[in-house]
Amino acid sequence: MRKTKPKKRILLPDPKFNDTLVTRFVNMMMYDGKKNTAFTIFYDAINRIEEKTKENGLDTWKKAMTNIMPTVEVKSRRVGGATFQIPSEIRPDRRISLSIKWMINYSRGRNEKTMADRLAGEIIAASKGEGAAMKKKEDTHRMAEANKAFSHFRA
Question: What are the structural domains of the chain?
Fold first, then answer.
């Protein structure tokens, strides 16, 4: 275990919406340090959302992120030679992190032509409570519910 907790890095807000959460999302989406490309993809996706839904794209994205955020997850723990899946609450920072990861991974798995289209499609689906990322959240919650009996093993 670590001696001290690492310092939190301060993220600069993005240039268009002045939001640090957008920067965090783009940083996780970025490949090979190509931040400009990642920002372009994100902004294009937001524009496509506005075209399709006739609503504010950033608000739709934030709603989608909130919908995807899980509240509980299962963690493996060995107790007396057996491994149990123990449900536990998720701290706020990890909730955001998981929702970003799921949104990006399931966007990449979609079959639209460009990444901006895929991301826009996944964001619109998640904001409506549909899509693969939403299913992942529900599966995670279902796993936690199914293993509720082992919650007394929590450390």
Answer: 20-29+36-153 (1.10.455.10)
What per-residue confidence (pLDDT) applies to 123? 95
Residue 66 has a pLDDT of 95
Q: Indicate if the pLDDT at residue 155 is higher than 80.
A: no
3-state helix, strand, coil in the chain (%, to 5): 60, 10, 30
Task: For residue 79, give the amino acid letter.
Answer: V
Q: Please state the rounded mean pLDDT for residues 85-110.
A: 94
Q: Is the pLDDT of residue 80 over 90?
A: no
Nearest to 67 by CA among 25, 124, 117: 124
Q: Which long-range contacts (CB under 8 A, 24 or more apart) does 22-26 make?
A: 22/58, 24/96, 24/100, 25/100, 25/103, 25/104
Where b means 16+ CB within 10 Å and e means fewer, 133-143 reads bbebbeebbee
